[in-house]
């Protein structure tokens, strides 16, 4: 769903991409820096309960996920290695975000939400793997209610608002995300099934 906003975000990031391109910065460097920033923000702030600040830091570095693509197109340096690196490090960033939340919930004794956050992490990985595996088999799997951008939006907004004192928003966001991720995994499995099994 958020793919509709990608052109606007790309236009906003183009001046920064041009500046980096003039300096010969590699898109892969931006990818790595973005992942390190997400991990540092999530694991440095979330476990200490600094949810708003952590969400702001993470959001800044998540934009690198779009900036590296803009930069690659400008330099004409898009590659199979770059696509692999980007997708792989996306999983690292996601793991850091939910791990930070899990550590926070465990420190506060909220094992229920810790388990929900863990489910979101695992379900999100299944959603991503289903698409990657399907495409590796030559199939299409570009379907789903909650893709990575939607999942990040929900968790970062919920965590940020929770950090500002909005009650129950993080719990609601995680339960919603858990349901949406499970539904999306089911959508992708069914989509592949319909392509591979005669009805």
TrEMBL record:
What EC number(s) would the UniProt record show? 2.7.8.-
**Source organism, top-level taxon:** Bacteria
- Per UniProt, where does Mg(2+) 1 bind? 65, 68, 86
Tell me if Endoplasmic reticulum is a UniProt keyword of this record. Answer: no
What is the enzyme's class at the highest EC level?
transferase
Where in the cell does this protein reside?
Cell membrane
Q: Name one Pfam family in it.
A: CDP-OH_P_transf
Cofactor binding note: Contains a di-nuclear catalytic Mg(2+) center.
Pathway(s) annotated for this protein in UniProt = Lipid metabolism; Phospholipid metabolism; phosphatidylinositol phosphate biosynthesis
- GO biological processes: phospholipid biosynthetic process
Give GO MF terms, alphabetically.
Answer: magnesium ion binding; phosphotransferase activity, for other substituted phosphate groups
Reactions mediated catalytically: a CDP-1,2-diacyl-sn-glycerol + 1D-myo-inositol 3-phosphate = a 1,2-diacyl-sn-glycero-3-phospho-(1D-myo-inositol-3-phosphate) + CMP + H(+); 1,2-di-(9Z-octadecenoyl)-sn-glycero-3-cytidine-5'-diphosphate + 1D-myo-inositol 3-phosphate = 1,2-di-(9Z-octadecenoyl)-sn-glycero-3-phospho-(1D-myo-inositol-3-phosphate) + CMP + H(+)
Q: Name one GO cellular component term.
A: plasma membrane
- Which Gene3D superfamilies does this chain map to? 1.20.120.1760
The keyword Nucleotide-binding is annotated on this UniProt entry: no
Q: Which cofactor does it need?
A: Mg(2+)
In terms of InterPro entries, this protein maps to:
CDP-OH_P_trans, CDP-OH_PTrfase_TM_dom, CDP_ALCOHOL_P_TRANSF_CS, PIP_synthase_PgsA1
Q: Which UniProt keywords apply?
A: Cell membrane, Lipid biosynthesis, Lipid metabolism, Magnesium, Membrane, Metal-binding, Phospholipid biosynthesis, Phospholipid metabolism, Transferase, Transmembrane, Transmembrane helix
Which residues does UniProt mark as catalytic? 90
| Binding residues annotated for a CDP-1,2-diacyl-sn-glycerol, in chain numbering | 28-31, 69, 73, 79
List ligand-binding residues for Mg(2+) 2: 65, 86, 90
Report the protein's function. Answer: Catalyzes the conjugation of the 1'-hydroxyl group of D-myo-inositol-3-phosphate (also named L-myo-inositol-1-phosphate) with a lipid tail of cytidine diphosphate diacylglycerol (CDP-DAG), forming phosphatidylinositol phosphate (PIP) and CMP. PIP is a precursor of phosphatidylinositol (PI) which is an essential lipid required for cell wall formation.
Which family does this protein fall into?
Belongs to the CDP-alcohol phosphatidyltransferase class-I family.
Q: Which proteins does it associate with, and in what oligomeric form?
A: Homodimer.
- This chain's protein is named Phosphatidylinositol phosphate synthase
Q: Which organism is it from?
A: Sphaerisporangium album
Could you read off the lineage of the organism from its UniProt record? Bacteria, Bacillati, Actinomycetota, Actinomycetes, Streptosporangiales
